[in-house]
């Protein structure tokens, strides 16, 4: 048997963790191993596979072409192995210390995490939850390879390639500071179109149609940012306005100095859905986690 055939499954897990986290430190935290142990595992992998695998850069551990091809095979194989083990193992929520991974945006964290963590602490207090953010186009592959167990959000472009279910409907509103100099009461179309807008252009959102509409109205986008969570301080101290989902706007109002108003234009409702991959259906831990997400977030 060749040397390459004698690879330890623990080394495979080390490789996958480094690839997905881009960091030896983060990989050691995910695997509950020391950094020297992970570094030693990486050295063994480099020897066995006869490749550097990762190159250290300012942006983290960047995979080589060999590592990219190896990851495709390793991640798929480990997903099948883990699924086979789960099918023969009993799953007790109250006793498990399993880590579940869910993809959501920063506003998803704001709205979804408080009730979800409260529920998990009541029924599965030892469970770990890891929130992942990624580009929307990566979600189906991450679900299929079990890098994440589920994705939650307004993600209409991936509905045809994932299993998914409806959680709730949402609608857009306008958020602005209470003392806005030109918008006091009702927000008219003229004032909306002439105002300076902030726009969130996150790669995880399915809100591209909103940007298209703003462009059609000739709206001036004064600020583009990748995250929603900085908006309360920005809007409260400027004359900019922003269009966002109503639940998030209501949460931001609590910061003070802000108010939300109905939009002067008709926009379609947002349908927030839970997404997963069919290949993991029937696995007790995965199905339990999906049920928890549906039960907890479906009533928001």
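Q: What amino acid sequence fits the structure above?
A:
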């Amino acid at each position: 048997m060749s040397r390459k055939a004698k690879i330890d499954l623990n080394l495979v897990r080390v490789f996958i963790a480094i690839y997905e986290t881009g960091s030896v430190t983060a990989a050691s935290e995910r695997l509950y191993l020391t950094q020297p142990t992970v570094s030693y595992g990486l050295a063994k992998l480099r020897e066995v596979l006869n490749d550097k695998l990762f190159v250290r850069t300012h942006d983290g551990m960047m995979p080589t072409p060999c590592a990219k091809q190896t990851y495709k095979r390793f991640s798929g194989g480990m997903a099948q192995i883990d699924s086979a083990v789960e099918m023969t193992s009993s799953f007790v929520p109250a006793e498990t210390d399993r880590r579940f991974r869910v993809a959501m945006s920063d506003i998803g964290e704001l709205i979804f995490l408080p009730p979800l963590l409260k529920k998990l602490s009541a029924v599965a207090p030892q469970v770990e939850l890891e929130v992942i953010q990624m580009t929307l186009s990566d979600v189906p592959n991450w679900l299929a390879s079990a890098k994440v167990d589920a994705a939650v959000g307004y993600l209409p472009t991936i509905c045809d390639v994932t299993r998914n279910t409806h959680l709730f409907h949402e609608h857009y509103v306008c958020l602005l500071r209470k003392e806005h100099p030109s918008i006091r009461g009702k927000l008219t179309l003229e004032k909306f179109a002439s105002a300076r807008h902030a726009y969130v252009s996150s790669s995880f959102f399915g809100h591209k149609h909103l940007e298209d509409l703003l462009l059609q109205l000739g709206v001036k986008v004064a600020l583009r940012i990748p995250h929603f969570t900085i908006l309360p301080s920005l809007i409260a101290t400027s004359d900019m306005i922003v269009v966002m989902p109503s639940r998030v706007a209501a949460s931001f109002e609590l910061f003070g100095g802000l108010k939300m108003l109905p939009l002067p234009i008709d926009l379609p409702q947002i349908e927030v859905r839970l997404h997963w991959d069919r290949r993991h259906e029937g696995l007790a831990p995965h199905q339990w986690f999906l049920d928890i997400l549906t039960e907890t977030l479906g009533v928001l």
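Q: And what stands out in the fold?
A: Residues 38 and 283 are 29 Å apart (CA to CA).
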